[in-house]
Every structure is written in structure tokens, then in C-alpha cells.
Design goal:
19% helix; alpha+beta; 6 helices; TolA/TonB C-terminal domain; 11-stranded mixed beta sheet; 3-stranded antiparallel beta sheet
Amino acid sequence: MLRKISTSLVLFAYATSAMADTPKGPLSLKPTSAWHVDYADDRCRLARQFGAGDDLVFAFFDRYGPEESFRLTLAGKPMRVSLDQGEASVQFGPAEGEQKFAFFKGNLAERTAIVFSSGERIGPVTFDERQRLDRAKPEDPRIVEPISAERKKAVRFLKIGRPLRNEVILETGSMNGPLKALDTCIDNLMTVWGIDVERHRTLTRSVRPANNPGQWIVAADYPLNMLSAGQPAIIEFRLSVGADGKATSCHIQSTTRPKEFDAAVCKSVMRRAQFVPALDRDGKALASFYRNRVRFQIP
């Protein structure tokens, strides 16, 4: 069952947490709520809780645009880790392979949380797709085949291994229906942005960077007061791009840190980003958008 709810995600505060001394066996948690879809102003969220009491875990799948990747957040005592950041072993099993997701440690309200900092999918890219991505130039679009409905239906659990001391298995069941509901929310979100959703379904070309996105934001753009404080951040941003390929506005969709980062991102990308416009099925340029995320991190 899917229900629309209204919730908000508090900002993540990074903090240390204690770990149990002795490893235990895998912790398998059954769902203790229905799937919920939250239609927010700048993102769509799929949420569910698993377990109860000290084993209660909240799972959030956030999407900010029509791409199928999501940002995963897991919160609750079983998610305690000793590292402030690193890579976690994640699997949407039993059929999908194990993946490595970069994460930050944080808090969601008063609960320990693992915040995954890159765009995740329920399955890894294939060998052929990985080869094609490795050969691509920085400005080339990163195109992979969408995860099929059959693969989404085959999911039965979400397993999180290292860096957790004790492996956690969330018994999600099929992910096909929940992810379809997330797609519906995204269509609604794009309509709010003023995007012609039907025309965008048959694009022959999406908005593409005309220069290297890796050069849009440089080390000197890191806000000095945040750098001095050692503050990392993840910012999701959206640019409106006209039919002439020029960025007309910048909008921050989500941020995990103070507004200094938001201003730095928009100022930098509006000054340096260049684009090739989107084309509809008739080959005509049209106003569209470009979305991406920035991860500020001190090595």
C-alpha cells in the first residue's frame, strides 16, 4: 500500500557514535510500515520503516529528477558506524550484485544515520556499460540501460554490510511498485517546474554539458569558513536551460549544510557551465533543465 504523506528531512549533523564491541550475526528486519511517498517541493521521497525498538531502521530513497538513480539514507541504531565517511557494501538481493556506495555519517533528528553521497541504483552497471563509461569523455552523457521491471520485481531485500559491525538485512519485498510510485511523483514535480512532461518523454537529446562539469566548481570555490571548520556537504542543484543552451537560473533542491555552500554552487555553475540544448522528437530545441550534485569534501 502506498500513501502520500508530508514529512521533512532535517539537516544532517555529523557526530561520533560508539560501536558494540562484539560482532553479532546478521540482523534481519521485517517492514513495520507501508511504503510512503512524499511529494515535496523539490524532491520525491520513498520511505519505509523496518524493525522496532532498538532495531528500528528508517529507509529513505530520495529522487530529485527523472533519472532513476536515488540518494539512499538509512537511520537508526543498527546503522551506527565508527567512520565519519567511507564506502559501504550494499546489495539489493538476491539477484543483484553487491555494490560499493560512498557515505557520510550523520544524524536524522536524534537517530544515527548513514547518508549515501552518490546517485545509487538497485543494481550495478553491466560490464559493457562500465567499459563504455570508462571510455567516455567528461562532457559526454553517462548513459546506461534503465533497470528493468523484472529486475525490480525480483528484489526481496536490501543488505548493508561493511562498515557496519553487524550486517543488516531490510526485507523490502519487490521494489517495482514502490519505484513506479516514485516515478509518478517525479512527473508531478517536473510539471511544477514548468516542464512539458509528455514532450520530454520522447526527447532525442537531453541537455548536455558543452564543457567539462568537473571544472565548474574548483577548490577555490570551497567556502573558507566551512573549509576552516572542516565541514563537508552534499548539494543537489538544478539549472534551467533555455532552447539556446544558456543556463537561465540555478535552484538548490537539497543541501546537507549551511547556505554558504548553496551560494558557492550556484555562483560557480552559472558562471562556468555551458550546454547543448535539449531536442524534441522532431529535432527542435526546447527549454529544459540540467541536474547534478556537488560533494564538498576535505581529503
